[in-house]
Amino acid sequence: MGEPRLVERPQADDAARRRAPAGAAALSGLLAAAAGIGVVELAAGALDAVPSLVLSVGDAVIDSVPGWLERAAIAALGTNDKPVLLASIALVAALLGAGTGLLARRRFVLGAAAFVLITALGVAAGLAAPDASAVLTVLAGAVGAAVGVGVLRVLLAAAAADAAASDDRPTTDRRHFLLLAAGAATVAVASGVGGWLLSGRERVDQLRAAIRLPVPVRPAGPVPAGADLEIPGLTPLFVPNEEFYRIDTALRVPTVDPAEWQLEIRGMVDNPFTITYDELMSMPHIEADITLSCVSNEVGGTLVGNARWQGVPLFRLLERAGVQQGATQLVGRSVDGFTAGFPTVTALDVTEAMVAVGMNGEPLPAEHGFPARLVVPGLYGYVSATKWLSAIELTDWDVDGYWIPRGWAKEGPIKTSTRIDVPGPGRTVTAGERPIAGVAWAPTRGIERVEVRIDDGPWQEAELAERLDVDCWRQWYLPWEATPGVHVIAARATDGLGELQTDERTPVAPDGASGYPVIEVVVEE
């Protein structure tokens, strides 16, 4: 007989984890990541001082990507940019979770360390959020990491036990793993949904429902007959709130209680002051029909809308504050840290510029800035339309708003533009009399003429809807005897100052796209 040999046996758990199938290990890591994230999201929903780590990572991505990539994303995705970003973050988190599961299958301590490192990166992003508590944010991240690592250990052990089971009894061990996996998925979903429910959106809707807008001292005029042509497919004169375009940097709509909200007027003023929501509501209000446009709106694009806004004129607040000499810029600051700046003279001279609290006859929707936002006719939103407004700061011209260092122009006057709505681009229509119709806008200047060209024919003057206000777009239409074939239709507008929309085609950066909208239409017999 040979001499006995000492055989070092690995610990059962480590050996079992090494025997866990790769697929089960990847699933274990994915579910562990989901459970850990869900717990942190629950804490974020319950505690205002704890930010969502998912949204914080998204904010970090938005703040760090180059301007050209942001422009490309908005051009390609439009108002779907945020859902796509969040879906991408979820996909990356799932892949990282699966990767940590595979790493832990080989050596658990490495997988756990990777899990903690990834969580730490999320916490670092969360600490940059406004009003984040460092202690609570780190604590929430630590709890989330602990839950994730714990779930990973339990699931890997169960998966390994299933793999190691003898052929005559695999069902019991597999059922045990599947029950644990289902439990982890339940924790993840319940925590995530619970965090969303606790985030305050439903409460904001309840608060909005209880608000009654005051009667404005200067209401908008009645809508004249013929101001809305009501042609099928033509954008309505007033875009419903739920259909109004939304482009901003907020991945989650801020939830602000108007009872706790305050607006601070500060900076280069003689009499800085703070005003509450009730005080703002008790001031004299105005109404105005104003078309807003995003600077990222491509020629013929849909990132533009018209609404009836209600609020307090900006110049009234500035008169109370006393603007100092040299205060050439007004910077709006949002509760989420966004900033936008425009010339102070605009706020003083454009009487319809306002701190808005109402949109189309109801309190501002949460997505559009509740409880208060800035609305400034004639300026693209990136320099003026601060939502969820928290402060108005008077500065000199050297202070830059959020988008300026990202490649956009310091000043952003809206260009005279038009869009063809009917027929829709690429549509096929039958021959016969058909309307060509659309909208044209030049806020603060108004629209005096719209012309349409079909193929290589002459420019034909379109019929304009009745004028409502110079800040408001106008609908237009041209009767067309459509003949079979492929036709190219172009349009151009002339504003109230007699300036013709330029035919020079330019991209959206740095100060808005220009050029005539052109569509191709197929006409069949």
TrEMBL record:
GO terms for biological process: sulfur compound metabolic process. GO terms for molecular function: heme binding; molybdopterin cofactor binding; sulfite oxidase activity. Residues 251-403 form the Oxidoreductase molybdopterin-binding domain. Keywords: Membrane, Transmembrane, Transmembrane helix. The chain crosses the membrane at residues 21-47, 84-103, 108-128, 134-156, 177-198. It comes from the Bacteria. InterPro entries: Ig_E-set, OxRdtase_Mopterin-bd_dom, OxRdtase_Mopterin-bd_sf. Gene3D superfamilies: 2.60.40.650, Oxidoreductase, molybdopterin-binding domain. PANTHER family: SULFITE OXIDASE, MITOCHONDRIAL, SULFITE REDUCTASE. This is DMSO/TMAO reductase YedYZ molybdopterin-dependent catalytic subunit.
